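Incident review: delayed structure delivery

Summary: a single-chain prediction request sat in the queue longer than the usual turnaround. Root cause was a stuck worker, restarted by the on-call engineer. No data loss occurred. The affected request and its eventual output are reproduced below so the record is complete for anyone auditing the incident later.

Affected input:
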Amino acid sequence: MEETGKAVAWDGAVNAWHVAGEVYRMGRREWLTEAGWQQAYDGGIRSVIDLRNGEETRRRDADPPLSAEAAARFGVVLAPTEDPGNSEFRKICGPYLNNPAFYADNARLFPEMLAGVFKALAAAQGGVVIHCSAGRDRSGMIAAMLQDLAGHSDEAIVLGYQCAMRGINEYRRTAATPHPYERYLPEEVLLPLLELHGGSLLAFVRSLNTKDFLQRHGVTVQELRAIVGKLSR
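Output delivered after worker restart:
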């Protein structure tokens, strides 16, 4: 059953959504409070896959405290989707990946890195939450590929991205620390972008053929079976 578009209300979580089965997505994990981590644990989450690059994983002064005991209950795997120092990537995407129109270039430049995310997911214990920084584009690229593996409809795949796009936009409305490049967009500005970016996302995932792409880049049949199993529970 497709449940895309269902928000997740873990305390402190930003832009958190159910993808399918035991798999979820969100913005940076450091936003969760200890109570939020307890809610995630109670909901079956045992593994976290962080799509960010190493230098992005530092805690910020405004992040809520998290005890070592609470953190130790979750397995965390760092599985970046890109090399931000790659000159071609920076030329195409600008300072960071912020548009599904560039997902195909990401997949072309870093296929083994994307395959690594799925290998990490296949090996993960229990429920899994995948996150990047905003929970929109790196998470959105992986979530769309997962939805493709799960057999979701075009409408569900587009909705998944649009929900995340709305979610981080709403966060920007009241964020204490302004983003260096992005600001809250009013509805009349956001709406055409939702349509444009949704169309780009769908074009990417339907041209990629996720299963074939992953198998070409080292994800085994057994690993794919494990991933689909997580998506269908």
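Verification: The CA atoms of residues 49 and 77 lie 5 Å apart.
Action items: add queue-age alerting; document worker restart procedure.
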